[in-house]
Every structure is written in structure tokens, then in C-alpha cells.
Amino acid sequence: MASEDVVGKTKGETAVSTIVNLAEEAKLAREEIKGPSHAILSICKSLIAGGVAGGVSRTAVAPLERLKILLQVQNPHNIKYNGTVQGLKYIWRTEGFRGLFKGNGTNCARIIPNSAVKFFSYEEAARGILWLYRQQPGNVFLSPPEDASLTPLLRLGAGACAGIIAMSATYPMDMVRGRLTVQTERSPYQYRGMFHALSTVLREEGFRALYKGWLPSVIGVVPYVGLNFAVYESLKDWLIKSKPFGLVQDNELSVPTRLACGAAAGTVGQTVAYPLDVIRRRMQMVGWNNASSVITGDGRAKAPLEYTGMIDAFRKTVRYEGYGALYKGLVPNSVKVVPSIAIAFVTYETVKDVLGVEMRISE
Predict the structure, then answer these.
(1) Which of 31, 47, 348, 351 is the most exposed place for a label (fewest CB within 10 A)?
(2) pLDDT at 16 exceeding the cut of 60
(3) Greater pLDDT, 55 or 7
């Protein structure tokens, strides 16, 4: 009888063990099935967070964005906009409230996918660069520890990669957005909207016209986006590690502190890259009769100035208007960039927290 009990007990234990093993195998199978879908969902949430961040931040500063472009391309022999306050008042007086946000719909249609791609590309580039960094062979200077984090220089590289990818993917929309933005009530309306502008430029000027100014844009985006991410992440990292002035609580930065980090990042990036932004915008206006940058060799305003390339655009701008022309619109742009970049970074991280995305920038 005791022998039967032992046999029964053994069989019971075997059955339980089999059930447990089957349950574990089923769990692993479910996780394998869940893995790809979970990763896709996480990617989608990250893209959504980046898109929301771009739309919110750009709409908040839309009037300053439009004034910046108007200052960049206006004819110096027919000055309408003398500064930030005067320019905003002039737009309000001549075009009303809607004039302050003209081109913002097109701008958001461009910046939302641009921002989504940019933030996601940065995270992927940062992860890839960090992995390569940890795999480096050689001496102690080339072999970082397994738990090494991104250095400011590596963050700059990841940000540069993200900026180039995002800029290239959405550049045609940026080009027509610039043209839509400089249209005023007093100029003949050549474009009725973003899609009409895209089709018109494609039909009348060809596919290459959609990428006018692309080279200075790409060159400019390397220091601009690269420095934005590098300064923002490095400042955050420094604050968390050093904990100065009691700004850090439980290794978390407050919203005002993160806004300040974003503002510093935006200021550094846009100051370095701004001349290239001016040249890009002027090259985008080439071939459009309603462009307002109309300087000719004798100094008279006749027809839109033609550029053969980025270097030629730099040379003619400096020759006819001086080096100061490379910084036209810098003041409203500075006022715009400080809150815009700050809002974008904080919105991105906040939306990701709300959506429950585990992945954070540079982690």
C-alpha cells in the first residue's frame, strides 16, 4: 500500500511538473509572439510622441516663425519689417489675427512627421552608436566599460544623423511652406495650399526645385539638431549627477528645469546654424516671381535674385547686403527657438510617459 502511495505521489509530481513545463513553454511562446507586436507598438508610440511634440511646439511660436521668414527674404530697398515687435504689429494691422498663423497648417504638416522621425531616429542612432562605442577594441582609451554612456560628442553625432534623416524626408514640404509663408494679402496668390504648391512647383519648375536649398539645410542641420540633442542631454546628465542648487529630486528633473535645458540647447544650436538657414530660405525662393528678395547687381529691385548654388548665394548675399544679412530675423528666431525647442523636448518626454513607453532618450 505504501508502495502504491509512493508510485501515485511520483505520478502526481510528474504530472504537475509536466503541466508547469507546458505552462512555461506556452508563456515563452506567447512572449515570442508578443515581442514583435510590442516592439511595433512601442515604435508607434514613440513616433506619436515626437509628432505631438513638434506640432505643439511649432504652433506655440507660429507668429514668430512667419516673421522670421519674412525678415529673411524681404527686399532691403523696400523695408516693411524693422524688428520683432514692429513686424508682428504690421502683420496684425495688415492681415489680422489669421495673418500671424499663415502657413502654420503647412508648417505643422511638415514638422509633425519631421519631429516624429527626428526623435525616433535620434534614439535609434544613439542606441546604435553606443553599442558600437562599447564594442571598440584596442587600448584603454578605445575600450569603454560595458556600462559606458553616450559622451557629448557621440550625442552630437546621433543628433546629426537624426537631423539629416528627418530633413531629407520632409524637405519638399519645408520648401513650399517657405513660399506659402511669404505670401501676403497684397501679393498675387500663386498657391492655394501645400498640395497645390507642391504640384505647381513640380509641374512648372521640375522635381529638383522641391529640393532647392537642400545642401545648406543638411549642412546646417548637423550643428543645429546635433547641438540641440547634445546640449539638452548633456545638461540633463550633468544636473542629475551633480545635483546643484537642489534642482534634482529622486534623480528626476522638474518641468521648469527641463524647459531651461531645452532653451539652452535651442539657443546654442540656432546661433551656430542660422546663416545657413537664411541661405536655404533664399535659395528656396529662386524661380518664384512673388519672392520678395529681389536684389540685382546694380542695387535696384527688379527681379528675384538667381543663385547658382550655396556658395554663390553666400557670396551675393554678403556682397549686396553685408554680413549682417546672414543674421536677418535672428532676434525673432531666438525668441522663437527658446520656447519652441524647450516645449518640444518636454512635450516629447511627457507624452511618452503618458503613453507608457519604456524607452527614453539616450537610455
Answers:
(1) 31
(2) no
(3) 55
Tell me if 183 is assigned to some domain: yes
* Integer angstrom CA distances of residue 48 from 157, 298, 343: 24, 51, 15
CATH code for the domain of 80: 1.50.40.10
Q: Is the dihedral of CA 232, 237, 238, 243 positive or negative?
A: positive
Burial class (CB in 10 A: 0-12, 13-18, 19+), 208: exposed
- Provide the CB-side half-sphere exposure for 66 (13 A, CA): 28
Q: What is the DSSP string of 20-42?
A: HHHHHHHHHHHHHHHHHHHHHHH
Beta strand spans in the chain (E): 248-249, 252-253
Helix, strand, or coil (residue 142): coil
Number of domains within the chain:
1
With respect to residue 122, please indicate whether it lies within any of the assigned structural domains.
Answer: no
Give pLDDT, residue 186: 66
| Range 133-145 burial, b when 16+ CB lie within 10 A, else e | beeeeeeeeeeee
> What domain range includes position 243?
2-110+168-353
Interaxial angle between packed helices 104-134 and 62-73, expressed in degrees from 0 to 180 and rounded to the nearest 10: 90
Contact 225, 159 (CB under 8 A): yes
Displacement of CA 173 from its chain's centroid (Å): 14
Q: pLDDT digits over 69-99, tens only?
A: 888 777 777 788 887 889 899 999 988 888 8
Residue listed under C-alpha cell 519674412? 70
How many residues belong to the chain?
A: 363
What does the pLDDT look like over 109-124, one tens digit per residue?
A: 888 999 999 999 999 9
Q: pTM higher than 0.85 for the full model?
A: no
